[in-house]
Amino acid sequence: MRGRDRWATLVIVALVLGAAFPFYRAVAGSLTPEAQLFEGAPLWPSPPVLEHYRALFAEREFWLPIRNSLVVAGATTLFCVTIGSLCAYALARLRFRGKALLLGVILAVSMFPQIAIVSPLFLLLRSVRLIDTYPGLILPYLTFAMPLAVWLLVGYFRQLPAELEEAAMVDGAGRLRAFREVIVPLALPGLAATAILTFVYSWNEFLFALSFTLGPERQTVPVAIALFRGQYQVPWGQVLAAAIVATAPVAALVLVFQRRIVQGLTAGAVKG
Amino acid sequence: MGHARAALACPTRVGYRGSVKKTGGHRVLRVATVAWSALLGALGCASERPGGPATVTVSGSVLGAEGRILRRQLERFDRETPDIRVEMRPTPDAADLRHQLYVQWLNARATDPDILQVDAIWTPEFAAAGWILPLDRFAPDTAAFFPVTIEANRWRGDLFALPWFVDVGMLYWRTDLFSEPPETWDALERAVIPIVAGGSPRYGLVWQGARYEGLVTVFLEYLGGFGGRILDGDRVTVQEPPGVLALTTMRDQIHRTGVVPRRVLTWHEEEPRFAFQNGEAALMRNWPYAAGPMQDSTQSRVAGRFAVAPMPAGPGGRHTAAFGGAQLAINAFSPEAAAAWLVIEYLTRPEQMLERASIVGQFPTRTAVYDDPALADALAIPPAQARAIVEAAVPRPVTPVYTQLSEILQIQLHRALSLQAEPRDALARAGSEMQALLDRAGLGRGGVAVR
Amino acid sequence: MVAPAVVTILLVALFPLTWTVWESLHLHDLRMPWLGQPFVGLENYAEVLRDRRFWGAMGHTLWFAAASVSLELVLGCVLALAMNRTFRGRALVRASILIPWAIPTVVAALVWRFMFEGLEGWLTHDLRAWVPVILSDVWKTTPFVALLLLAGLQGIDPALYEAARIDGASPWRQFRYVTLPLLAPAIMVALIFRTLDAFRVFDLIYVLTGGGPGTATEPIALYTFNTLMHNLRFGYGSALSVLVFLVTFGLALGYIRLLGRGLTDVRS
Known about the structure:
- The complex is a heterotrimer of chains A (272), B (451) and C (268).
- Chain A is mainly α and 272 residues long.
- Chain A has helices spanning 2-30, 34-37, 51-58, 63-93, 99-110, 118-127, 135-159, 163-170, 175-186, 188-204, 207-212, 221-226, 236-271.
- Chain A contains 13 helices and no strands.
- In chain A, helix 7 (135-159) runs antiparallel to helix 10 (188-204).
- Chain A is globular, with a radius of gyration of 23 Å.
- With 451 residues, chain B is an alpha+beta fold.
- Chain B folds into three domains: 2-43, no CATH class; 59-167 and 323-386, Periplasmic binding protein-like II (D-Maltodextrin-Binding Protein, domain 2); 168-322 and 407-437, D-Maltodextrin-Binding Protein, domain 2, CATH 3.40.190.
- Helix content of chain B is 44%, strand content 14%.
- Chain B has helices at 2-9, 19-23, 27-43, 64-80, 95-107, 123-128, 147-151, 185-198, 213-225, 241-255, 270-277, 291-295, 337-347, 350-360, 373-378, 383-391, 402-417, 423-440; strands spanning 55-60, 85-90, 115-119, 154-155, 158-159, 162-168, 170-174, 203-206, 231-232, 235-236, 281-286, 306-309, 321-330, 363-364, 393-394.
- In chain B, helix 4 (64-80) packs antiparallel against helix 14, helix 9 crosses helix 10 and helix 9 packs across helix 17 (402-417).
- By secondary structure, chain C is mostly helical.
- Chain C has helices spanning 3-23, 43-50, 52-83, 90-102, 105-117, 130-154, 158-166, 171-199, 203-208, 220-230, 234-259, 262-267.
- Chains in contact: A-B, A-C, B-C.
């Protein structure tokens, strides 16, 4: 078995290095003066400069899209986890007609191609003057975030023993109270995983944000970066600096909560 | 955070507007729309931008030198005109991105920005859609501008935007490699092939070849050089022999003679400028802006060793420069049109143009400015030569569907240049698709013209 | 209890979808307000069927989905098998391969574009331009596939391998006759998710190639987006949207049927 373990280690090291190489290039590029970036950057800049990071915040006001992304992804997550957990609890515990159908619809909506609803959403948001506003992004985000949250949470709630809340209800607590006081504390890890995944998906979303925002005031991070292109060129140094900045929060989330994320991902997918 | 505050201030009003009725002509749809609006209302009511009595917002480039000069001029206007406050609204610098943003704004009937910096090719489109105001009511002194700049901004006889600065395509050539600029494509190829074969510099001619509007401007210059046109009135003529000849010349320069490097197919303006400025290209097609940074010897290896000339011509054509540049227009939904006009009038005064020219190198649109001796110091090339190139500039087709026509053409040009199609076939396909578009828009042969 | 979530889903997803269908039966060109908004029946659909760019985009989408998903499954399987062995620093490895998955697609695409921009002749060649596109997708989503498969692997009873070894089965035969069949459900799930995702590909190509050179790498979602948001042909674009939806839905339905009760079984 030793030979095979060595093989496994080799594969892993190769793939991890492969996964890391683009990041290395991005970091190196973000520290390289713009004139050297033309036609491919050197492997390591000499000397490295922080100019692009400075320009990013001083000239581009990159904190604006960061703020927007935080607001939009945060609100979407909050909304989905609260409303979604009620729905998921009902789906996990209660018996009612059409439950299977409902689960099916939720699954189907989560597989929706977003492009299919861009045009009516645009016309609707325009008619109620929500283009280029936070609600005008949060609402469309619910289309993918809500089914995701419900689907993940149903899985978590099912894992919890039903006896606990039954005991609580025998003691005179209502369904909602049993949910609030027994289930929610027990399901906190699951709720956290759901929140993280919802947040990451919302943070990364591009199509809706591109279609429903009009300018830097409301653009999210991915849109702002994608539209960095100047009148005459792509300012690669700043683009790469922004890429690093945009990656940092999700990378941090992943590193801290990786176990939860993996559980959430595999539970949500394998079970659904 | 203005929107958020405005939204909080009116918690009871549901953002339902009469215009919804128009969009959802069906009863079920309408009911659902109301439900939708209620949902939206619960989350936060329709946003309203805060606006004082005379605040004018100007959209345009806010980065680099262009942004600094605009900011300085607007601050000066603010001081001189205390009852109007001017604000800048940043927009993307890439023309296609800015165009898309404007379309989204105007299509969403946004009331600001009040003043739009538009490319000449957008003016008819925005005018026909009713998105910008005719300016004749303000009696602009159109006679003081180059006629080509005024004509490009007219739609059905009315002027819809005032020219701000001119861009023209020019050939930059190295005075240390050539004794005179090549007059014809044949002469250019004869002169460049030995240079490229020697590898120093490594590129012959570089231009903008990515799939975007810049490619169309380059093609327009080759096309004019062979005597062709994209559109003749309401008839598409790009697929005719001059077009095929022009596109074949471009393709052969990349793939047969190697005069043009293949990598231009992803290049916008700045990559060729870097290549030329680093001394890696013998010739470059670019806009006037490039001259400024290239004369700066701290960053340029060719400072003092280049000059400009008109683009070469082929048989049956003439030297052609694509006409571009920026115009200022007023948003049709702006509540401050009169104040906006005052700002436009200020920004297009001769002294502002002169200042712009000296700092950003952009060519003025007023003919009289070229007689001002101060311009000679401001521009990187002699004003008389600049003026001659502007006067010979060729506008792109003036039609409200220009951007769609251009998209079709860009795709087919790019296919031919990346060897996915023969020039003849690519242009034939572009021609039929463009004609179909014109016909569908009611602008083509026998259509009920909007005009 | 279900009402708020269900109402939200209905309003933000199903109602707009209905509207898309309605729009697709009209000529509605926001750029040409003078044409009005007449009902045209199935005319938009007829035009789609004649539209070469549409068929090209469909072909590109299918090719992208097939190429990227099969590569991801193979690589993901190798990675999962390797990670299934306990070793030191496992948590670190897991976290580091998760990062590409977690970052915005736009960022991933930009980084890959940056790396390929300096190489002559890749982004300008109609076939070679697919290399960065597919590579970046593989880079970004193989971790997801690997983790799914890893979860599947961990569910396999080690006693089965023990028995196979006692029977003298080679490692390959163990993989072929023990691992693969038991991993099949996890593979199917990964296949479904990845195919549907690949079919919706938009961000990656929008940023990496913009669909070029020409339209050689333009997927259907990008073509639809350009029709809707650039050219503002809402009627025609809606017809495209409906077709995208139908194809995706058909795929999903087919898969779900294929998996049969697998999904709901695990669920309950």
